[in-house]
Amino acid sequence: MRAFLPSPTPSRNEGIAALDSRADRRHAFSVDLRAFQAGIARAYGDKDAARGTAGTFMYFMEEVGELAEALREPDKHDLEGEFADCLAWLASLAHLAGVDLASAAEDKYPQGNCSVCGGSPCSCDSKP
Q1: Using one digit for the tens of pLDDT, what is the confidence trace for 61-84?
Q2: What is the pLDDT of residues 12-31, one digit of tens each?
Q3: Residues 117, 124: contact at Cβ < 8 Å?
Q4: Which of 34, 43, 48 is nearest to 103 (CA)?
Q5: Which residues lie below 8 Å from residue 42, measured CB to CB, with a gap of 6+?
Q6: Are 94 and 37 in contact (CB under 8 A)?
Q7: Each residue of 94-125: pLDDT tens digit?
Q8: Residue 43 CA: distances (Å) to CA of 26, 39, 60, 88, 102
Q9: Half-sphere exposure (CA, 13 Å, Cβ side) for 57?
């Protein structure tokens, strides 16, 4: 499936508009990060625990590699699926580590703002 962003390097507003447009098309489905992490834990928690953090991390890294490939050649890969796979493996790792992803994200990036300057868009020179 083709990437939904309008250009390989969209401006911030173009990217947000594309995401908003996509959300309009899929209005019937929305993911709550906490519920998603809990669902992944229910579905895969036993397997992840048996595999351990190190093994689960290796699967996550494999998915990150597949995402890198899909970003390079989106016409040849399921870009959206690779993003979803990375999110699922990240949720698995967070579960194994006892981290609530939703709380961690909100604490570090309140309301999606920069973790350093607090701005949106970011106005600092730091790389958060």
Answers
A1: 999 999 999 999 999 999 999 999
A2: 455 555 555 555 555 456 78
A3: yes
A4: 34
A5: none
A6: yes
A7: 999 999 999 999 999 999 999 999 999 999 98
A8: 24, 6, 16, 11, 19
A9: 5
Contacting residues for 51 by C-beta, under 8 A, at least 6 apart:
59
Contact 121, 92 (CB under 8 A): no
**Torsion of Cα atoms, 63 then 67 then 69 then 74, to 10°:** 140
**Nearest CA-CA partner of 107 in 97, 117, 96, 115:** 115
State the Cα angle at 93 between 92 and 96, rounded to 5°.
Answer: 90
Q: Cα separations (Å) of 55 from 50, 71, 73?
A: 9, 25, 28
Q: What is the pLDDT of residue 31?
A: 85
pTM > 0.90: yes or no: no
**Contact present, 102 and 33 (Cβ < 8 Å):** yes
Find out whether the peptide bond into 8 is cis, omega within 30 degrees of 0.
no
